[in-house]
Design brief:
By secondary structure, the chain is of the alpha/beta class. The chain has a single domain, classed as 2,3-Dihydroxybiphenyl 1,2-Dioxygenase, domain 1 (Roll). The protein contains two helices and seven strands. The chain is globular. This is VOC family protein. InterPro entries: Glyas_Bleomycin-R_OHBP_Dase, VOC_core.
Length: 131
Protein backbone atom coordinates (compact mmCIF):
# COMPACT_ATOMS: atom_id res chain seq x y z
CA UNK A 1 0.00 0.00 0.00
CA UNK A 2 1.39 3.40 -0.95
CA UNK A 3 1.81 5.97 1.80
CA UNK A 4 0.68 9.46 1.07
CA UNK A 5 0.41 12.41 3.45
CA UNK A 6 -3.24 13.48 3.50
CA UNK A 7 -3.32 16.27 6.08
CA UNK A 8 -1.50 17.78 9.01
CA UNK A 9 -2.85 19.81 11.94
CA UNK A 10 -0.94 22.95 12.91
CA UNK A 11 -1.86 24.67 16.17
CA UNK A 12 -1.62 28.47 16.06
CA UNK A 13 -3.11 31.52 17.78
CA UNK A 14 -5.67 32.41 15.11
CA UNK A 15 -6.52 29.67 12.61
CA UNK A 16 -8.36 32.02 10.24
CA UNK A 17 -5.58 34.65 10.16
CA UNK A 18 -2.81 32.09 9.67
CA UNK A 19 -4.68 30.13 6.98
CA UNK A 20 -5.62 33.31 5.12
CA UNK A 21 -2.01 34.58 5.38
CA UNK A 22 -0.63 31.36 3.89
CA UNK A 23 -3.22 31.03 1.12
CA UNK A 24 -2.68 34.65 0.07
CA UNK A 25 1.11 34.23 -0.05
CA UNK A 26 0.72 31.08 -2.11
CA UNK A 27 -1.85 32.66 -4.41
CA UNK A 28 -4.00 29.64 -3.56
CA UNK A 29 -7.72 29.17 -3.13
CA UNK A 30 -9.15 30.78 0.02
CA UNK A 31 -9.03 28.50 3.06
CA UNK A 32 -12.09 26.50 4.05
CA UNK A 33 -13.46 25.86 7.51
CA UNK A 34 -13.74 22.18 8.33
CA UNK A 35 -15.23 21.76 11.78
CA UNK A 36 -12.74 23.23 14.25
CA UNK A 37 -10.08 23.60 11.54
CA UNK A 38 -9.36 26.05 8.75
CA UNK A 39 -7.72 24.24 5.84
CA UNK A 40 -5.36 25.32 3.11
CA UNK A 41 -4.83 22.64 0.46
CA UNK A 42 -1.43 22.39 -1.22
CA UNK A 43 -1.05 21.82 -4.95
CA UNK A 44 -0.26 18.15 -4.24
CA UNK A 45 -3.57 17.92 -2.32
CA UNK A 46 -2.17 17.81 1.22
CA UNK A 47 -4.52 19.52 3.67
CA UNK A 48 -2.90 21.89 6.14
CA UNK A 49 -5.45 22.19 8.92
CA UNK A 50 -4.92 25.17 11.21
CA UNK A 51 -6.41 24.93 14.70
CA UNK A 52 -6.76 27.54 17.43
CA UNK A 53 -8.38 27.40 20.82
CA UNK A 54 -7.92 23.64 21.18
CA UNK A 55 -4.92 23.85 23.49
CA UNK A 56 -3.80 26.65 25.83
CA UNK A 57 -1.82 29.36 24.00
CA UNK A 58 1.23 28.68 26.19
CA UNK A 59 1.23 25.06 24.97
CA UNK A 60 1.55 25.99 21.29
CA UNK A 61 4.92 24.92 19.93
CA UNK A 62 6.56 26.55 16.95
CA UNK A 63 5.66 24.68 13.75
CA UNK A 64 7.45 24.77 10.41
CA UNK A 65 5.97 24.41 6.94
CA UNK A 66 8.23 24.25 3.88
CA UNK A 67 6.99 24.60 0.32
CA UNK A 68 8.95 23.65 -2.79
CA UNK A 69 7.94 26.16 -5.46
CA UNK A 70 8.99 27.00 -9.00
CA UNK A 71 11.11 30.05 -9.75
CA UNK A 72 8.04 31.86 -11.12
CA UNK A 73 6.03 30.97 -7.99
CA UNK A 74 8.88 32.19 -5.78
CA UNK A 75 8.94 35.50 -7.66
CA UNK A 76 5.18 35.92 -7.13
CA UNK A 77 5.38 34.93 -3.44
CA UNK A 78 8.35 37.21 -2.81
CA UNK A 79 6.50 40.08 -4.53
CA UNK A 80 3.59 39.53 -2.10
CA UNK A 81 6.00 39.51 0.84
CA UNK A 82 7.58 42.75 -0.39
CA UNK A 83 4.25 44.46 -1.16
CA UNK A 84 3.13 43.81 2.43
CA UNK A 85 6.47 44.86 3.93
CA UNK A 86 6.64 41.55 5.80
CA UNK A 87 9.72 40.62 7.78
CA UNK A 88 11.66 37.73 6.23
CA UNK A 89 14.92 35.91 6.74
CA UNK A 90 17.40 33.84 4.75
CA UNK A 91 17.78 31.25 7.49
CA UNK A 92 15.62 29.21 9.88
CA UNK A 93 17.33 30.72 12.95
CA UNK A 94 16.18 34.15 11.72
CA UNK A 95 19.62 35.75 11.97
CA UNK A 96 19.78 37.18 8.43
CA UNK A 97 16.76 39.46 8.20
CA UNK A 98 15.82 41.07 4.91
CA UNK A 99 17.78 38.52 2.85
CA UNK A 100 17.01 35.37 0.89
CA UNK A 101 19.31 32.37 0.62
CA UNK A 102 20.70 30.73 -2.51
CA UNK A 103 21.19 27.22 -1.15
CA UNK A 104 21.52 24.35 -3.60
CA UNK A 105 21.57 26.77 -6.54
CA UNK A 106 18.05 28.01 -5.80
CA UNK A 107 16.39 30.59 -3.59
CA UNK A 108 14.78 30.34 -0.19
CA UNK A 109 13.05 32.57 2.31
CA UNK A 110 11.55 32.20 5.79
CA UNK A 111 8.81 34.22 7.49
CA UNK A 112 6.40 33.95 10.41
CA UNK A 113 2.63 33.79 10.43
CA UNK A 114 0.71 36.68 12.06
CA UNK A 115 0.68 34.89 15.45
CA UNK A 116 4.39 34.12 15.24
CA UNK A 117 3.96 30.40 15.92
CA UNK A 118 4.34 29.05 12.37
CA UNK A 119 7.60 29.39 10.47
CA UNK A 120 6.92 29.26 6.73
CA UNK A 121 9.66 28.49 4.22
CA UNK A 122 9.58 28.75 0.44
CA UNK A 123 12.40 27.12 -1.54
CA UNK A 124 13.02 26.62 -5.25
CA UNK A 125 15.39 23.65 -4.94
CA UNK A 126 15.02 20.63 -2.65
CA UNK A 127 17.66 20.05 -0.02
CA UNK A 128 20.65 17.97 -1.09
CA UNK A 129 23.79 16.70 0.58
CA UNK A 130 25.00 20.22 1.49
CA UNK A 131 24.00 23.80 0.67
Amino acid sequence: MANELNHIIVHCHDRHATARFLSELLGAEPPLDWGPFTQVTSSNRVGIDFASGMIPPAAINMSHLAFLVTDAEFDAIFARISERSLRYWADPMMRHEGKINHNYGGRGVYLLDPGKTVSIEFITRPYGAAP
